[in-house]
Write a structure and sequence with these properties.
It holds the Pfam family Pcc1. It comes from Amorphotheca resinae ATCC 22711. The structure is a single chain. By secondary structure, the protein is of the alpha+beta class. It has three helices and three strands, in the order E-H-E-E-H-H. It has a three-stranded antiparallel β-sheet with strand order 1-3-2. The longest helix is centred in the last third of the chain and has 25 residues, at 79-103. The protein is globular and about 40 Å long.
């Protein structure tokens, strides 16, 4: 499936981050969405999508798969701007995932 090319923002990247639950994917999305891109030369959008490995509705007891994958789509005017923006995003994502690992309520219920 080919994406439409945007002449203003020709450089693009889609990052999919699988998470264990839809709740964690949604929490990551809400946490990362707060910080806006600083440069007008970069555009970013977030969404959650079902995992490609999730069972289809016909073979599952639930009517729709859970959105457990955090999808981040970047568009930029140059490869350099894309790289700089994605580096910043990875730093923020690392912080969010570290906090989830240390403080999430599901983690507190695990046997150590």
């Amino acid at each position: 499936m080919a994406a439409q090319s945007d002449p203003e923002f020709p450089c693009s990247l889609t990052i999919d981050v699988p998470l264990p639950t839809a709740r964690l994917a949604s929490a990551a999305l809400q946490s990362l969405r707060v910080d806006q891109e600083l440069s007008p030369l970069v555009r970013r959008s977030f969404s959650t999508i079902p995992s490609p490995n999730s069972p289809t509705a016909s073979s599952s007891s639930s009517s729709s798969p859970e959105n457990t994958v955090l999808r981040t789509e970047y568009k930029a005017t140059t490869n350099r701007m894309l790289r700089v923006a994605v580096n910043g995003f990875m730093e923020s994502l690392s912080t969010v995932l570290g906090v989830m690992e240390e403080l999430d309520v599901d983690v507190l219920g695990r046997d150590q």
